[in-house]
Design brief:
Layout (H helix, E strand, L loop, with lengths): L3 H8 L2 H12 L17 H5 L3 E5 L5 H9 L23 E5 L15 H16 L20 E4 L2 H18 L4 E4 L1 H11 L4 E7 H6 L1 H12 L7 E6 L2 H6 L8 H18 L6 E6 L8 H11 L9 E8 L2 H14 L16 E7 L16 H4 L12 E5 L7 H10 L1 H6 L3
Parallel strand pairs: 1-2, 1-3, 2-9, 3-4, 5-6, 5-7, 7-8
Antiparallel strand pairs: 9-10
Helix pairs in contact: 1-6, 2-5, 2-6, 4-13, 5-6, 7-9, 7-13, 11-12
């Protein structure tokens, strides 16, 4: 009879299985893409570890804001209801944005989902490990704490990597919780109780996976509700524009109008009987531009072609809060939640960002110092002895100016945690 680990390895794609084996073969966590397998050997010590959150860039900071500010439960009794105290007040978070490899949503368009799925599992491995680079060093250090839970704060990463990460955690036999944002987004649609059609704005990759229509339909169906018309629009530009990527020089409002128009046209093509009313922000970057997106739909509604198919009042679904609620419940159920008066092993949150590892021979850079686009999307999985990016501390100075302004104005708890 095959062991559970062997069965799990058979259940994941080859790239994930190879990375699982690589991490197991380097159990001291010193090698790239590995972690210390003994980090969770003490159950009580595990409770005091931080919580990991990752995204392909800074868009996942919208999820972190929800985690930092959620007040949906009583901290002493764990019962639903606000008590005036943030639900994760005792917890600390480690955030990682894989900005050097973003946008994740574009990998499927060039048939590189195999490499994307490897990137996603590598993100989890980084959070599990102690290995990170100081800001101006070519040598890694090993003083970053591991995590007790992983929040995939990226819709594309959830669509393509959630099951891989869960199976990897099971194969490694470590007591780490894994939570993704897509199921939460579908629950948000259910809870919105709107009567019109549903539009999903997401990345190209997330839309290609069809994870949102599938998950929304199953969530509504299980609740005994009919499933309305669901249209999607995958953008290869909006996330980059929100982050201030120089490759997208126009304003966020320009890209938002383009994507809103495309979504409205896709919805109209289905000859709907009810107007488009619920907009799912299916990329964690998009809540940072919700104002521009809503303005775009309002402008479109003034055009005769769209007046009757776009609702006058629109509901936006941001999966972040539902994700925070799910994490709270999972921590409580697993008895990994810190109780009032207890402390984490770190005093304050930590932030990391991936950057090109310019000292590595063979990588190709663009004029602004980022990874060359053709190079980025031509890579193949399985090269665990080669690091073309490195993960360094994230400071406000590393955030593009436009994105920094959005974070400062719309994510105040995150901005404060960043030290500003």
């Amino acid at each position: 009879m095959k062991t559970l680990t062997a069965l799990l390895l058979l259940a994941v794609a080859a790239h994930a299985a190879d990375l699982i084996e690589h991490a197991r073969a380097n159990a001291d966590g010193k090698a790239a893409f590995s972690f210390d397998s003994n980090a969770w050997s003490d159950a009580e010590a595990t409770r005091h570890l931080p919580i990991g959150v990752f995204d392909s860039g800074i868009g996942g900071l919208t999820v972190l804001e929800a985690l930092l500010t959620l007040d949906a439960f009583h901290n002493d009794t764990l019962q639903p209801g606000a008590d005036g105290e943030p639900d994760f007040a005792q917890e600390r978070f480690i955030y990682f944005g894989d900005q050097a490899n973003m946008p994740y949503g574009n990998y499927s368009a060039v048939n590189r989902t195999d490499y994307l799925r490897e990137l996603i599992v590598k993100d989890a491995v980084f959070l599990l490990g102690r290995r990170a680079y100081p800001a101006a060093s070519t040598t890694p250090q090993y003083d970053k704490p591991p995590v007790k839970a992983i929040v995939i704060a990226c819709n594309t990463a959830t669509a393509y990597g959630l099951e891989d990460i869960r199976k990897a955690v099971a194969a490694w036999k470590i007591p780490v919780i894994v939570v993704g944002v897509v199921e939460a987004g579908a629950r948000g649609v259910l809870e919105s109780k709107t009567q019109g059609g549903i539009g999903v704005l997401a990345t190209v990759g997330t839309c290609a996976s069809k994870v949102y229509p599938r998950t929304i339909a199953s969530t509504l169906g299980r609740a005994g509700q009919s499933v309305p018309l669901i249209a999607q629009q995958g953008s290869a530009t909006l996330a980059g524009a929100i982050e201030g990527d120089a490759a997208f020089p126009d304003s966020v409002a320009v890209y938002a109008l383009k994507e809103a128009r495309s979504l409205a046209e896709a919805y109209r093509a289905e000859k709907p009987s009810v107007p488009l009313q619920t907009i799912v922000l299916g990329c964690t970057h998009y809540p940072l531009a919700q104002e521009e997106i809503n303005t775009a739909f309002a402008a479109l509604r003034q055009e005769p072609a769209f007046r009757d198919i776009i609702a006058e009042q629109r509901t936006f679904v941001n999966p972040a809060e539902a994700t925070a609620r799910e994490l709270f419940r999972e921590l409580a159920k697993s008895r990994l939640r810190l109780k009032p008066g207890e402390t984490c092993v770190i005093d304050q949150g930590l932030f990391y960002l991936s950057v090109p590892r310019v000292e590595e021979v063979g990588i190709q850079l663009s004029g602004d110092g980022s990874l060359d686009k053709d190079y980025k999307y031509s890579r193949s999985p399985g090269h665990f002895d080669f690091e073309d990016t490195k993960n360094v501390p994230l400071t406000p100075e590393l955030i593009p100016a436009n994105s920094a302004k959005l974070v400062k104005e719309r994510l105040p708890a995150v901005w404060k945690s960043l030290g500003r």
